[in-house]
Amino acid sequence: MVTMSMSPNQDYAIEARDLSFYYGSFRAVKNVHLKVVPRQITAIIGPSGCGKSTVLRAFNRMNDFVPTAHIDGSILFHGKNIYDPDVDPVQIRRLIGMVFQKPNPFPKSIYDNIVWGAKINGFRGNQDDLVEETLRKAALWDEVKDNLKKSALALSGGQQQRLCIARALAVQPEIILMDEPCSALDPIATLKIEDLMRELSKTITIIIVTHNMQQAARASDQTAFFTMDEDRAGLMVEFGATQQIFTNPKDKRTEDYITGRFG
Ligand SMILES: Nc1ncnc2c1ncn2[C@@H]1O[C@H](COP(=O)(O)OP(=O)(O)OP(=O)(O)O)[C@@H](O)[C@H]1O
């Protein structure tokens, strides 16, 4: 197994280098170069089918579960291509966690949702402390502290999503990938998640796929705009500071998309 320790001067948290992604013979994404800035929130936006989720999942090898999927190019994490044969994907998914569109807590207690993954990953510390600390980080502690043995499925959708974020945090990742994490939530729960993302980004890197352009504009530091080419392959058109992308895009395709003329 490869040990990944942060090199002190690394200017990216993870980097896609000339990444093309295939499902069988279909090239879903082509030639993506993307350097994700550490401890910031990066939003990936673009029209349906342009490969946002595919790229996001490539960042922690979640696509390994799709038998026809394969990549060209590399994804560098601590200077190492995570697709190299000596890299353990389980270790990658511990360091690069994921939160999905629909909250998916385990059908267990709130407490067990937090400690389960941590125990599998060799956690030997005090479980009560881990649960409290993690739920505080996920801005959920005050709402659930008296009901830790209650089923996670009895929580509201927004609370379940914050629990899923807590569950991801419990194994101390460096990066959290979020695939449309608020699409099943109401506006108040959505804002709570965005506040939480802002707080978490002081210490970890967040990459979020969102269809909601206001959310990208409001909640991210960097934005990557993807679109689809004539061959239906997704490509990255533009990447930069969110404010620049939304106020002064360099590419006409970005401008058309963010002003609602396309997509
Ligand atoms: N498991 C799969 N097998 C085959 N093709 C797939 C698979 N998953 C995605 N695709 C195809 O890859 C392309 C990119 O899909 P992807 O879901 O990454 O796009 P997206 O931008 O996230 O779309 P959306 O915004 O609609 O979620 C699409 O053409 C899609 O049909």
From TrEMBL:
UniProt keyword annotations, A-Z: ATP-binding, Nucleotide-binding, Transport
PROSITE patterns for this protein: ABC_TRANSPORTER_1, ABC_TRANSPORTER_2
GO biological process terms held by the UniProt record: phosphate ion transmembrane transport
Entry annotated with the keyword Nucleotide-binding: yes
GO cellular component terms listed in the entry, alphabetical order: membrane
Pfam families: ABC_tran
MF annotations from Gene Ontology: ATP binding; ATP hydrolysis activity; phosphate transmembrane transporter activity
CDD domains the record matches: ABC_PstB_phosphate_transporter (cd03260)
Domain ABC transporter: 14-258
Protein name stated in the entry: Phosphate ABC transporter ATP-binding protein
Source organism per UniProt: Levilinea saccharolytica
